[in-house]
Amino acid sequence: MSKIKYYIASFRLRTLPLSLSGIFLGTLLAASEGYFNWAPFLLAVVTTLCLQILSNLANELGDLQKGTDNEERLGPIRSIQSGALSLKEFKRTILLFVLLSVLSGTALVSTAFESLLSTDGLIMLMLGAASIVAAIKYTVGKNAYGYHGLGDVFVFLFFGLLSVCGAYFLMTHRLSISIFLPATAVGLLSTGVLNLNNMRDIENDRLCGKRTLPVILGISKAKVYHFCLIIGAFVAMSSYMGLCGFRPFHFIFWFTLPLFLIHLKKVVQAEGRELDPQLKVLSLSTLLFTLLAGWGAFHF
Q1: Which of 68-77, 221-230, 264-273 has the highest average model confidence (pLDDT)?
Q2: Where does the pLDDT of residue 78 fall: very low under 50, low under 70, confident under 90, or very high at 90 and above?
């Protein structure tokens, strides 16, 4: 029981709202068109949480194995790094969340479609398997993509496109080209959270050979990139709402703009450890952004 708090710390609860943003938005957009089913929605939430926790655990393991988690790292002290949890215990927990992700994802596909072996069912199962592999390979293994500047691409694909489009597809069993616009918005904001994390750890990552985009670009260009991600999200979501009409309530998500502007001001002024509080700010702002956008969709 004394170790529970260390497991929970490694789950990184502050990342969970961000992981749910795409599921909520995709589901709300489907519901605005008259498609909603509680069982797939709840299973999608459980599956997403399991995958996010799996990703967080694998990230901690991979960074430890590569020496990136050390006394120079500016983020919170990790559970294995501190010695609170053994490597064996940690690997066992990772395997548990792989199993939970498989079981939950299989139940989700089975509930959403007539058969696991249907074309739609098989496609979703393969995407689920890809999500598990991507969660682990971010930092684990010799060819971990997070160490080669590809983390942003995978976050955009899985937290944005797959999350929003997948949730929408689970409800409606169809996709439209326009749905990729809100998916892009969530993907860009999610990528912003990763970029913020990497800007915080830029010096330690550079010394450890972890080539994140901030390491490649430098801190000044990484901040410009951060601005572009957030501006791009507002442009993408506004474009989607514009395609659906120009009623004022469609653009209620713009009420979150002051939160993002304050966040960007802090990013300009801060470096290193001072950037850490902005991770929570951006994650919660993204969640509010998606909830308001989804609510606005009901007034098409």
Answers
A1: 221-230
A2: low
What values do phi and psi take at 148, rounded to 5? Answer: -130, 30
Nearest CA-CA partner of 109 in 18, 17, 46:
46
Alpha helices in the chain (DSSP H): 4-11, 16-32, 38-65, 79-82, 87-112, 119-137, 151-155, 163-172, 180-200, 202-208, 213-217, 219-243, 257-269, 277-297
92-121 burial: b if 16+ Cβ within 10 Å, else e:
ebbeebbebbbebbbebbbbbbeeeeeebb
Please tell me the predicted confidence (pLDDT) of residue 257.
Answer: 97
Three-state DSSP class for 150?
coil
The pTM is what? 0.93
By C-alpha distance, which of 252, 249, 256, 262 is closest to 287? 256
Cα 41 to chain centroid, rounded: 17
